[in-house]
Write the structure tokens for this entry.
Amino acid sequence: MSAEDVLLDLQSKIEDNLPPEVSVTGVGFEGPQLVIYTEEPRKFADDGKIIRNLAKVLRMRIAVRPDPKVLLDPETSIRLIDKIVPEDAGIENHFFDPDSGEVIIEAEKPGLVIGKHGDTLRDITKEIGWMPKVVRAPPIKSKTVKDVRDFMRFHLNERRDLMANIGRKIHRQAHHPDQWVRVTSLGGAMEVGRSCYLLSTPESKIMIDCGVNVGSDENMSPYLYVPEINDFNELDAIVLTHAHMDHQGLVPLLFKYGYRGPVYCTPPTRDMTILLQLDYLDVSQKEGKRPPYDREAIEQQLLHMIPLDYEEVTDIAPDMKLTFHNAGHIIGSAVSHFHIGDGLHNIVFTGDYKYEKTRLFDPAVNKFPRVETVVTEATYGSNAGTQPSLRVAEKNLQNIIKTTLDRKGTVLIPAFAVGRSQEVMIVLEESIRKGIIPNVPVYLDGMIWEATAIHAAHPEYLNAELKKQIFQKGRNPFLSESFRPVDSKEIRDKIIEEKEPCIIIATSGMMNGGPIMTYFSKMASDELNTIIFVGYQAEGTVGRRIQKGWKEIPMGDETVKVNMQVETVDGFSGHSDNRQLMDYIRRMQPKPEKVFTIHGDEKSCKELADSILRKLRIESKSLVNLETVRII
């Protein structure tokens, strides 16, 4: 059955299940969802049960689009929208798309535009015909978020055509009689870096992550030349678990060499991915290296990215559905649940996850409708892979900072732009507000401020307590006056020259480049100062050498003497330690039948697999790069 035949069949089923007074003028695919066109969008808006019933019957995501003839002109529409929506919503912009019949409303408080149970949105549709879509106006202006939204609006026509093609491919008729599921490790097995896995059935091929190992020239990229994926266009989809470069850094390379399929991720992952990839290009060029792709490949990737919210069940292939769940690692990180066939098998790829509530996120989700197989990270999976609690880590950090500031020194914290920086920021904001540490400037250098702006643009992805603080109490800790972005060499030089007590959070987290090196080279010789490591330091990095106690650090043509105090505060990691990894599997509902370990050194992967087998009585194995395992 062709895609057109499928659409005709769907339209017939829709008409059979609609109330007599409601009609449709056509149906079409838009990526993973089915679009219904109607001259009566108000009737759909009046009765939310219509769409829910259709979605249940068809087992598909459904969107309603108004027929162009029922749309009011934009000027009149804006006046009516502003009349319907409370002024407190803080509407900043309206963007009308005649092709989709959508009006994108950018507001400071989207909840007031949506209304209770979506009542305000339905009122808007009834009055103007246009289907409203609400996005949050970022409280901290983010160039990345703005550029992404502008790019998508500018390429609406191209986007519409490719989404239609993606939809046809997803909803093609499955025809293979065989039933099997296989997983191939293309990178990130018994190692950390270049994560990449292929989930295959007779009908489809899904790539989960495609990362780059920025710390290795020899093992930088996954094994993308193997026969299983020698033609990238044979892939049905790419699924990104989160935005760290070791999980998504080489996706644009696939587009450079011809891939034109969808990339599924959460909205924050999309924005953060673009930020980190552009920075990767910038750093590569500054270091005189030739990056593996260019900006055009990143833009092509962005055009094909389909953002999905947590808990949103979506068809991504004729025989596969995808659902993202909170992973608690960084903003937008997702535990990816794949439902294969008509109840044939369910497999979960955890990506990187934190099974503990943190200052930023709720614990990773481990309850699913069904799960038979789990592929889990094992970064701290070794028997010795323990971390102190976050409460202990925070107290240690506060004590070290207070001691340093009391002696008029400067605190230098190397941190990754995404995740650890924002976690530490929340702790510092509360510590200063409560008087636990002195009220000194907290300078944010590198990508940290832009990454923080992306966090502020997606507060719905933060934990329940932080959301309540932002939405109900009107206190956004990221907007604290203590935080001061550093966006020029002049500001950086002034901070160094003045030698006033302060806290500096700067990238990169492992001190393999970035503005942290400038501060370190000028501050390391002063014994009043302290450098605090809050993240993992890989072997061979400058950060690891300092952590080991080296008193002289080669930096280009000079050698930096280290007299400053060197401290490590464990517990801020976005990864689960050994105990949390075991608890995640132990408490998973339902209990899985098989577990595969990845994303850790050989010892960590093997010891975690052995513990799961011995203690939990679940079949468990460590995957190896270039290995294919048959799941069923």
User: Anything to note?
Assistant: The two ends are 27 Å apart (CA to CA). DSSP finds 21 helices and 28 strands in the chain. The domain at 71-137 is CATH 3.30.300.20 (GMP Synthetase; Chain A, domain 3). The chain has a mean pLDDT of 93.
